[in-house]
């Protein structure tokens, strides 16, 4: 293997490692800022939930917002200034859980944009069907 090939190989390894570490860092940020309320997996006891799981939240966000950019903008604004008329969840969820409290002072706009992008890319998982929804080409759509 010549020096150029070795350098390219090292650069690829570093790039992959950095990408994985960055994803791990965003997931840790989500865990610290959001997962206290919005769990990443369906719990065995639904009575333990204090807020809708992130999978359900993102299913509804993707139903309403057709692009990643619009979804990130919505999440970034809503988390800091939640309003019942702007909520994407079903009304019975607000009745059950209450309106999300504002996270002003708990998370920055930059952190929210990073977290929202990660959520958009990871939830619901590709191919995961949930309550009448199908996931295709990066978007949730009503199953017909």
Average pLDDT figure: 81
Strand order of the largest sheet: 1-2
Q: How many separate domains make up the residues?
A: 1
Count every beta strand, where a strand is a DSSP E run of 2 or more residues: 2
Low-confidence stretches: 5-20, 132-144
Query: Helix count?
Result: 5
Largest sheet: 2 strands, antiparallel
User: How far from one another are the termini?
Assistant: 54 Å
Over all CA atoms, what is the radius of gyration? 18 Å
Structural class: mainly alpha
Please indicate the percent range of residues in DSSP E strands (runs of 2 or more).
5-15%
Helix content: 40-55%
H/E order of the elements?
HHHHHEE
Shape: globular
Please provide a brief summary of the model:
53% of the residues lie in helices and 6% in strands.
Tags for this model:
5 helices, 144 residues, two-stranded antiparallel sheet, disordered C terminus, mainly alpha, globular
What topology does this entry show?
Blueprint: H1 3-33, H2 54-64, H3 68-80, H4 91-97, H5 109-122, E1 133-136, E2 139-142
Antiparallel strand pairs: 1-2
Textual characterization of the structure:
The chain is mostly helical and 144 residues long. The protein has one domain (9-39, 51-142). It is 53% helix and 6% strand. It has 5 helices and 2 strands, in the order H-H-H-H-H-E-E. It has helices at 3-33, 54-64, 68-80, 91-97, 109-122, and strands at 133-136, 139-142. The protein has a two-stranded antiparallel sheet. Helix 1 crosses helix 5 (109-122) and helix 3 crosses helix 5. The protein is globular. The N and C termini lie far apart (54 Å).
